[in-house]
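A reminder from the course coordinator: this example appears on the midterm review sheet, so study it carefully.

Given structure:
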């Protein structure tokens, strides 16, 4: 059916990409007329696990008004927390060269520190 495209190869959606992915003429036309409708149809046409995950992420984060990122408070554990609207805390811990989801907690949280991303790597 459609050629499976490795997301790491995707730099931008251009004519070459649409040709390689064998995107239908109708989807190409929609991309030219309405980017929103075209991208929605392109996502359905290409399918893949990332599409379903992006829908779930949008459902979770779409109405969130405030996101705080907080470093892990546990000594000896490297990780961080994402706090949504002061009420839902998602925990992530380091597992080798990446982070994994480590659970959640409900309850009021005061707030994070936006400088968490400053200073570690010189950016």
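Designed residues:
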């Amino acid at each position: 059916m459609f050629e499976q495209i490795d997301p790491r190869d995707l730099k931008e959606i251009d004519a070459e990409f649409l040709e390689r992915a064998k995107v239908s003429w109708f989807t190409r036309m929609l991309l030219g007329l309405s980017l929103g409708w075209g991208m929605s149809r392109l996502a359905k046409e290409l399918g893949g696990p990332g599409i379903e995950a992006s829908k779930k992420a949008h459902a979770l984060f779409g109405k969130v008004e405030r996101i705080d990122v907080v470093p892990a408070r546990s000594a000896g554990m490297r990780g961080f927390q994402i706090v949504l609207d002061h009420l839902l805390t998602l925990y992530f811990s380091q597992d080798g060269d990446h982070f994994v989801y480590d659970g959640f907690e409900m309850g009021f949280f005061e707030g994070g520190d936006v400088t968490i991303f400053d200073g570690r790597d010189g950016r």
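The beta strands are 67-71, 79-84, 88-95, 98-106. Helices lie at 15-20, 25-33, 35-46, 49-61.
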